[in-house]
Amino acid sequence: MKEKDESAAPRAPRAKAARGDKAAAAPISKDLVFRIFRDNPGKVFAYRQLSRRLGVTTKEQREDIFNHLKALKKAGLLTLLQNDDYRLTDAGAAQAATEPASGRKTRRNEREPFAATGRRGGRPVETEFGQDPVVHRRREAGFDFPDADEPTTTRRRVRHEEAGETITGTVALATDKYAFVISEESEQDVRVFTDKLRFAMHGDTVRLRLRGSRDGRPVGDVVEVLNRVRPELVGRLHMQGGIGFVKPDNRKVYFDVFVPYENLHGAVHGEKVLVRIAEFPENDAGHLPVGEVVRSFGQAGQNEAEINAIMAEFGLPFEFPAEVEEESEGIPMEIPQSEIERRRDFRNVTTFTIDPVDAKDFDDALSIQQLENGHWEIGVHIADVTHYVRPGMALEKEARYRATSVYLVDRVIPMLPERLSNGLCSLRPHEDKLTFSAVFELDEKGKLYNSWFGKTIIHSDRRFAYEEAQERIEGLEADYTAEIQLMNSIAKKLCAARFKQGAISFETQEVKFKLDEQGKPLYVFVKERKDAHKMIEEFMLLANRKVAEFVFKLKNRKPRFTMVYRVHDAPDEERLQNFALFAQKFGHQLDLTNPKKLSNELNDLSSEVVGRPEQNVIQTLAIRTMAKATYTTDPRGHFGLAFDHYSHFTSPIRRYPDMMAHRLLEHYLEGGKNVEVEPIEEECKHSSEREKLAANAERASIKYKQVEFLQDRIGDTFTGVVSGLTEWGLYVEIEENKCEGMVRVADIPGDFFELDKDNYRLVGQRTKRIIQFGDEMQVVVKAANLLDRTIDFELVDDRPDFVKNREREERNAGRESRRGYRPERSGGKRRR
What we know:
- Belongs to the RNR ribonuclease family. RNase R subfamily.
- Residues 715-796 form the S1 motif domain.
- The protein is of the alpha+beta class.
- It folds into 5 domains: 30-88, Arc Repressor Mutant, subunit A (Orthogonal Bundle); 166-227, CATH 2.40.50.140; 232-300, CATH 2.40.50.700; 322-566 and 645-689, no CATH class; 713-818, CATH 2.40.50.140.
- 29% of the residues lie in helices and 25% in strands.
- It contains 20 helices and 34 strands.
- A 7-stranded mixed beta sheet has the order 14-21-20-17-16-15-22. A 5-stranded antiparallel beta sheet has the order 6-5-4-7-8, with no helix packed on it. A 5-stranded antiparallel beta sheet has the order 11-10-9-12-13.
- The protein starts with 29 loop residues before the first helix and ends in a 16-residue tail after the last helix.
């Protein structure tokens, strides 16, 4: 009997598939297949990509797609390139052939919207600076993180739109009341109220009729939904008389989904489910979309149900296809002697890994040896994933699609199967491993004399946890103490040189959880970055930068050799001015008159706020103000790191762009010619999008666990700082665990408060008391709702009871005297 490998990484458990007959899945229409090509002219789609987009689950659906592709090819609308890759033959003819008939009735959603909860909509500052900070596993500077904003496109400037004109754009849901349609044909995003959206969802492509403006912003009605990117929703199933309704988890989704009994497939009341919408009503007066339960995750509120629901909500895979697992199992463990002979051998050089204590996928190692001239040779050795994962393999296609590993609170959703990520490619101690290395000759002052890049073989002598390495840095006399202390000293010199060149030091704080065996959080804490973390980070930054510079300088004129770069643009001037005004409210001055000294100004601000209540708010908003780092073939440089050229080379086990960088570097080292730009740029865009999706899923899992943590602490008092302000509430972030909740403005004791948007503060009408960002507050946990992933606080009120009772009576009297006040619509429970 095979012994279980205790070093295996935590895997995403498989959610149970929907119960019932799989043959009941809806057929795939030819028009649905063709629209994917029509809406993406010039783009190549393989059969597997189409299957993923269309959510294929049955053999019948797979046959539908094959038959439609053959028919469309025979009709001359699609061209077969190679294997099973197809593209549109003629975009213009295709558009004309599928032009929708005129005179189609517009839909009107007459259904009563969800009851107001006082939580819908974005915060004013959130609108300006973006979403919550990303918390994810990384080895580069904390500044370098994926964009989490709503999707945007570059728009050309055109004339002001006239009422009646139609344009095409992409839907970005803002709240359950309205969305924005982003279009290259419009100077401004067009607001569309949800009763005019024709059930379009986030990311869908629509044709829109403009109908004037409102509050200075163009408004319109959706005429037709041209492409539905993912007609699936995750939500809680409610049963009424044998039929079901799914209420979506995403609070921006403005409609429920009706599920007939025959489409429930055994799902029961109260379960979290994934529902695929099979029918969008043409005449929606009183009608809802009709769907079918695809997966049941279990009763809402349970850990497995909620985490699996988050995975489904963001379209994350639950398992690898069988052919991918089989292919990974078929790769031999032994390294042929012929392969060793073609590599530079580092097996006799001191080598070790430093990773988190619970890590299983070791994708980087460091080696160190002294040269005859007294300098030090430090090798950054990276797992040679592309030696095992070759173009054309099922493994390669799956890695390209996933593009990144996803680190949820209680599990990893890996980019590569476990046998590769934790076995073949992982640089485990006391094993020969194939690597792709960047080797540097440095002196003890951090001066770089020489660089070498190439394929290697290593043998790691020791696996360190960060805590063990930190002990040696702090003076513990043990194995490899001298080597680690020397490397740490050199790393600090490299870091100082970066900041002298203009690197920016803002970082977000990473939240970590201690979970019990059932996944329940025992406590939450903020991860502390010490010298051991920073040392590893500096050598990874050095490798990434020098690889990018090497490829860029291979050719001294345009077109340069194609490479995958990680770029980060300089911040937008207007957003920077807004941030400077915001920082000024806390007494911090930013001089923006000299762009060359901008990084110095930001670094000075970062130092000023350390240890102050507003530290996290200021640093988080500073990062949101910056442009977002993305992947591209355009070597525009990295503003935050102050590098002219930067790539991602050091994490190929968990990032597909690193695999692309490895292949390109190997190709050029072997004397290969320049690689075509367009396919690489397409993969860069895909990887950037997948990275954003992963970051959003990670954020959702963190929020869920924070709510779960506070659920057992109702009535407890915590110290926090004001982290957000809206007309209906103020958000407070608890200092010790970064859990954020809301205090309703109407419940703030001692006065009635109004939002002063221009100054980011609440002002008391009578006392003129001011509440603003960064103010320290004592809060009591009032409620923690796992289903909504929301936390409610109330401010500590030490006044006498008779004063509080009198104020409560006055507030209630004031509410009931308002014009049109109705208790059942005030956000509270309906009176019966």
